[in-house]
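ok, trying the design again with the full structure, not the truncated one.
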């Protein structure tokens, strides 16, 4: 069968590549064409557009690049229509992908599957109407989404979380670690704006613990010169690219900007503080109370359904607060032991590895029934 996949970010590229590998196990004649990245390209198929030319975050960047975004959307739609796939598989990236879903459905090209649901339970709940209309099957990686969608009369498939797969693969393929230094990992996000807003405060806080080495896990699409702009003078820190999981495995604790990285850090059992500074913090907190539909912003707390990790968001993220809560999870503290115990509960809820395989099995089963 012919599979057309669309991933718009680094995490989507990773999870889509693992899904493609699993699809090849289920369908020996699988053909792939995609918007994605290097990891998807390594699996095989035709890369139409790299995600680095797609990802724009925030109102102003989107506005400035609107002609490019619209051109990419138009090209994608035309490419799908010309290639005539058996299924379009969308991976997260809702602003772009829901528009593609609408087009594919309206033109009756093929079924639309969504792998890694848009987080409409957090905000923009109205998008459920678009999903009901344009998405044939939704494959969830977060267990609490099943009940949320069921309450809105849209049954979905929970296949497990691909972060568990990704972490398991790295651990299995890596030599046992010989940890010689005490390390604090710094994960400041995958977007330039996140790094600009968070990195300086993270480093100023972590550097007060003189006995610890600081290591930044560099995002694949950000060059080292950009990081250097936001490293305060006099702070000794190492930057490593393409080694996020190994950095975490070697670390005593971590400061993590909210996102998939918070979940990966918890799966690796590294105590963490979630950091997400925003300008106009008080205004954001007011907007959050009116707009956001969830109590937490980190996936760790959302999966657990309770506060496991401390979330320093908007004006709560100060150097003083970051120092305080980082100290609370270093060795010898009760907070560290409690967090590690809570991680075990969260991982039980999340389930074991095999998400990509389960998703591929379910997808190919439904497709075979459709086309038989």
């Amino acid at each position: 069968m012919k599979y057309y996949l669309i991933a718009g970010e680094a995490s989507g590229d990773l999870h889509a590549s693992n899904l493609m590998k699993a699809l090849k196990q289920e369908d020996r004649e699988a053909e792939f064409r995609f918007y994605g990245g290097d990891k998807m390209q390594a699996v095989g198929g035709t890369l139409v557009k790299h995600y680095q030319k797609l990802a724009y975050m925030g109102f102003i960047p989107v506005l400035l690049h609107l002609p490019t975004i619209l051109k990419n959307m138009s090209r994608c739609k035309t490419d799908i229509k010309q290639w005539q796939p058996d299924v379009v598989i969308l991976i997260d990236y809702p602003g772009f992908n829901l528009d593609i879903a609408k087009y594919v459905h309206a033109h009756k090209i093929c079924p639309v599957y969504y792998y890694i649901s848009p987080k409409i339970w957090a905000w923009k709940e109205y998008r459920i109407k678009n999903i009901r209309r344009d998405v044939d099957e939704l494959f969830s990686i977060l267990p609490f989404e099943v009940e949320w969608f069921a309450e809105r009369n849209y049954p979905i498939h929970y296949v497990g979380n691909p972060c568990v797969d990704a972490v398991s693969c790295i651990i299995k393929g890596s030599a046992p670690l010989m940890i010689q230094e005490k390390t604090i990992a710094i994960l400041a996000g995958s977007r330039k704006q996140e790094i600009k807003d968070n990195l300086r405060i993270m480093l100023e806080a972590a550097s007060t613990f003189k006995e610890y080495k600081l290591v930044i896990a560099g995002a694949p699409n950000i060059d080292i010169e950009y990081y250097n702009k936001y490293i305060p003078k006099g702070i000794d820190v190492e930057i490593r690219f393409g080694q996020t999981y190994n950095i975490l495995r070697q670390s005593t604790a971590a400061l993590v900007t909210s996102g998939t990285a918070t979940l990966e850090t918890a799966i690796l059992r590294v105590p963490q503080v979630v950091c997400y500074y925003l300008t106009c913090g008080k205004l954001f907190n007011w907007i959050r109370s009116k707009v956001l539909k969830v109590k937490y912003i980190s996936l760790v707390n959302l999966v657990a359904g309770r506060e496991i990790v401390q979330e320093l968001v908007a004006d709560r993220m100060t150097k003083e607060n970051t120092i305080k809560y980082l100290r609370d999870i270093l060795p010898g503290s009760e907070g560290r032991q409690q967090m590690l115990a809570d991680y075990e509960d969260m991982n039980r809820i999340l389930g074991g590895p095999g998400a990509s395989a389960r998703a591929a099995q379910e997808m190919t089963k439904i497709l075979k029934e459709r086309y038989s």
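Keeping the full-length input from now on. The chain has a mean pLDDT of 90.
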